[in-house]
From TrEMBL:
Span of domain Nudix hydrolase: 4-145
Biological processes, Gene Ontology terms: AMP biosynthetic process; ATP biosynthetic process
Name the UniProt record assigns to this protein: Bis(5'-nucleosyl)-tetraphosphatase [asymmetrical]
InterPro entries: NUDIX_hydrolase-like_dom_sf (IPR015797), NUDIX_hydrolase_CS (IPR020084), NUDIX_hydrolase_dom (IPR000086), Nudix_hydrolase_domain (IPR051325), Tetra_PHTase (IPR003565)
Amino acid sequence: MKINIIKAFGILLCRLKKYNPVTTGDINKFEFLFLKASYADKHWTPPKGLHENNESGLETAVRETLEETGINKDKYKLLNYQKTLKYNVKDKPKETTYYLAMLLNNEENVILSDEHTDYKWIGSHESDTYNLPESLADLLKEAEEFLNKEQL
């Protein structure tokens, strides 16, 4: 019996954080865009969604990011990092692949769709504040390590 796996794709959009490590003591240089789902009070994720028709995973991620945030692909640079998270939703297997991208202009406006009620730029150290599942918290840490290693 074949198990149908729900597959979703998204962009883990990051930006350089406005900070001063001398005055704040904050060593985290990057923030990641998270959206608050309209259907759940404490459900925060990067923009993502299910693929349509014959889209590639990346095409789905780009489309969903535009639909959910108003940010077009010419406003960010895709980086050479992606990760697939595997988990269950209502006892059904789901895989979400995130592609890491750097926002080109830190002041870019986020225009939410009706699927979301709020957005935040959060650092990897803020996972607990937003009740992120361990897999998403790990994704942020790993993405931040990649960004630091690439010296972006």
